[in-house]
Design brief:
mainly beta, 13% helix, globular
C-alpha cells in the first residue's frame, strides 16, 4: 500500500470518529512533541508540525528557541586544548568571540558538532571506511566565516579528505521509516567527487547496498546522475546512486543552483521522497522532485541504517568538498507547510558573507605571499623571466632580482573593486592572471576577460592559516602552488593533476609577508 493510500484511509477513519488530529504527527512521526519557545527555531517549527528533530547541528546558531548549550568544540593546535563554543544567549547565535579569544593566532580545528536535539547525536571525526582509510581530517575552525543576523559566526569548511560521522545514533530513521532533513550550505563551494553529503548512512562505514542511505548531496558529479545545466545540483545520495528524480541518471526538473547560501532538503517515506531547494537568504523553496522511489531495485523499500554523516559518503568516500552551516534530521515526513515555515526562519536569520580584510592587502601596498604548506614555508609566489609563476625559496641572501620578482603591488580588482589584483613590482604594468589554468604575468589589454582573469577575491585561508584567493570568474578555483608551479586549481574539480585533493587546503592558503623589494 502506498503512503498516500494509507493516509487517505486513515483520514477517513479519523473523521468517522470525529477526530481531526494532525495526521502527519500521528501517522508518520509518532507522538513526540516539543514546547514552543518564545523565539522559535527550525526545530520548534518541525515539532509543531509533528515531525520533531532527532538531530540538529549548527556552528552558527541555536536551532531551538530555548537552546542555550554548546554548538561545537574547537581544538587548538599549539597545545591540544579544547573549548566548547556556545551561543550568546538562549536561542541565539554562536559566540564567535569566544573562539577567536581561545584560538588567537594558533590554528584551531572543529572536533565536535553538538546535537541540539537532546538525542546525543553529535558529529565527530569520521573513521576510515571501505572507500578510504581514516581517520578523516577535521575542518579548520576559521575557514568559513559568515555573519548571521549581523553576528560573526563560522561554518564547517570541508575540503576533500574532511569528514564527520556518528554510527551510534538515537532516533534516526532505519529501514523504510519516514524522515526529513535540511542543510544550509555554501552554494559556491562544491566538488565533483564523491560525496559531499549530510544525512542518513551505513553504521559500518561500508557500502552495504542500494537503499542503505538517504542523505542530501551537493556538488557537480555526473557519475550517477545529474540535472540540467553544468551543476552543481542538490540530489539525494541513496547509496550506489545520486538521484535527482525517479529515473537513474539525468532528470530535467532538477536545475543547477547558484545561490551563495543554499537551503537543501531531502525527505523520504515508504515509496515517496522529495528534493527541494531555495535561496537561504530570501524567497521560497522550489520542489525539484516529489514522487515514487527510483525505479531501480533496492530502493523500495529502503534499508536505511541510521548513522549520520557530514562531508563524506556512506563508505567514507571523501573526495568532494563543501561548506555546512546548519542542518537537521527529523522523525517523520515533514509537510510542505512546515518546510515553508522553516525556510522563512532560515531567510530571517540573514546569512551574509563575512568581509575579510588585511592591512597587508590594501590597494597600493606592497606584499610578498609565502606558502603555508609544510614543505615550502620558506618559498614565495614569484614570476619568472618567461612570465610563468611559481614558488621558490627567498631569503635575505637572495639576489635582488629574485626578491623583486617575489614582490607584488596590491591593486583594486580590475574586474571587481571589492576584490584584488596583483601587479608585478619588478615589471610594472604586468599583472598576475590565470590562463589555461596556469598562473602567469601579462600586460593588461583592457578586455573584460583579462580583467576577470586577473581579479581574485580574498577569503579566509582554507587550512585555517592566512588567506586564500578566489578567482573572480571561476569561483570554485583558487591560487595554488602544485609541484612548485602556480595554478588556478579546484578542490578535486576539473580533472587536472593540479586539482589533486592532497594538501589542497594548505597549497591554497597564503601568508602575507613584508615585501622583499
Amino acid at each position: 500500500m502506498s503512503l498516500q493510500t494509507w493516509l487517505r484511509r486513515a483520514r477517513r477513519s479519523l473523521l468517522a470518529t470525529g477526530t481531526t488530529a494532525v495526521l502527519t504527527a500521528t501517522l508518520i512521526a509518532g507522538t513526540e512533541t516539543a514546547s514552543h519557545a518564545a523565539t522559535q527555531g527550525p526545530c520548534d517549527l518541525y515539532a509543531s508540525g509533528g515531525t520533531p528533530c532527532v538531530a540538529a547541528h549548527s556552528t552558527t546558531r541555536a536551532l531551538y528557541g530555548a537552546y542555550g548549550g554548546a554548538l561545537y568544540q574547537v581544538r587548538r593546535a599549539s597545545d591540544g586544548a579544547t573549548k566548547d563554543i556556545g551561543v550568546l544567549s538562549a536561542g541565539g547565535y554562536a559566540n564567535a568571540a569566544a573562539q577567536d579569544a581561545f584560538c588567537g593566532t594558533a590554528t584551531c580545528v572543529i572536533t565536535v558538532i553538538f546535537d541540539q536535539s537532546g538525542k546525543g547525536n553529535h558529529l565527530t571525526q569520521a573513521p576510515g571506511g571501505g572507500a578510504a582509510p581514516g581517520p578523516d581530517n577535521l575542518a579548520p575552525a576559521t575557514a568559513a566565516p559568515v555573519t548571521v543576523a549581523g553576528h560573526k559566526a563560522y561554518g564547517v569548511y570541508v575540503a576533500a579528505g574532511t569528514g564527520y560521522r556518528n554510527n551510534n545514533t538515537r532516533g534516526i530513521a532505519v529501514g523504510d521509516q519516514p524522515e526529513g532533513m535540511y542543510a544550509v550550505l555554501d552554494g559556491s563551494h562544491f566538488g565533483g567527487g564523491c560525496c559531499f553529503d549530510y544525512g542518513n548512512a551505513e553504521t559500518n562505514n561500508l557500502d552495504t547496498g542500494n537503499g542503505h542511505m538517504e542523505a542530501i548531496y551537493f556538488g557537480d558529479s555526473t557519475i550517477w546522475g545529474s540535472g540540467t545545466g553544468q551543476g552543481p545540483w542538490v540530489m539525494a545520495d541513496l547509496e550506489n546512486g545520486l538521484f535527482s528524480g525517479v529515473n537513474p541518471g539525468y532528470n530535467a526538473n532538477n536545475p543547477s543552483v547558484t545561490h551563495r547560501f543554499l537551503t537543501a532538503i531531502v525527505k523520504g517515506a515508504p515509496n515517496l521522497w522529495a528534493i527541494k531547494a531555495g535561496n537561504a537568504q530570501s524567497g521560497a523553496l522550489s520542489t525539484y522532485y516529489s514522487g515514487p522511489r527510483p525505479n531501480v531495485p533496492g530502493y523500495n523499500p529502503m534499508h536505511k541504517e541510521g548513522a549520520i554523516i557530514l562531508g563524506i559518503g556512506g563508505d567514507n568516500s571523501k573526495s568532494s568538498s563543501g561548506t555546512f552551516y546548519e542542518g537537521v534530521m527529523t522523525s517523520g515526513y515533514p509537510s510542505d507547510a512546515t518546510e515553508n515555515a522553516v525556510q522563512a526562519n532560515i531567510t530571517a536569520a540573514n546569512y551574509r558573507t563575512a568581509t575579510i580584510t588585511s592591512s597587508a592587502l590594501t590597494p597600493g601596498a606592497r606584499v610578498s605571499l609565502r606558502a603555508s604548506t609544510p614543505c615550502c614555508t620558506g618559498s614565495y609566489l614569484r614570476h619568472n623571466a618567461d612570465s610563468t609563476v611559481a614558488i621558490s625559496p627567498i631569503t635575505s641572501a637572495s639576489p635582488a632580482a629574485d626578491k623583486s620578482d617575489a614582490t607584488w603591488i596590491v591593486r583594486a580588482g580590475l574586474a571587481d573593486s571589492s576584490c584584488l589584483s596583483f601587479e608585478s613590482a619588478a615589471a610594472r604594468g604586468q599583472y598576475l592572471r590565470h590562463f589555461d589554468h596556469r598562473l602567469r604575468t601579462a600586460a593588461s589589454d583592457n578586455t573584460a576577460l583579462f580583467n576577470q582573469d586577473a581579479t581574485f577575491c580574498l577569503q579566509a585561508g582554507h587550512s585555517g592559516q592566512g588567506y586564500s584567493f578566489q578567482s573572480a570568474n571561476y569561483p570554485n578555483r583558487f591560487l595554488r602552488h602544485f609541484e612548485y608551479t602556480g595554478y588556478l586549481a579546484g578542490d578535486g574539480v576539473g580533472g587536472h593533476t593540479w586539482d589533486n585533493v592532497a594538501y589542497w587546503a594548505e597549497d591554497t592558503s597564503w601568508l602575507t609577508a613584508q615585501p622583499w623589494s
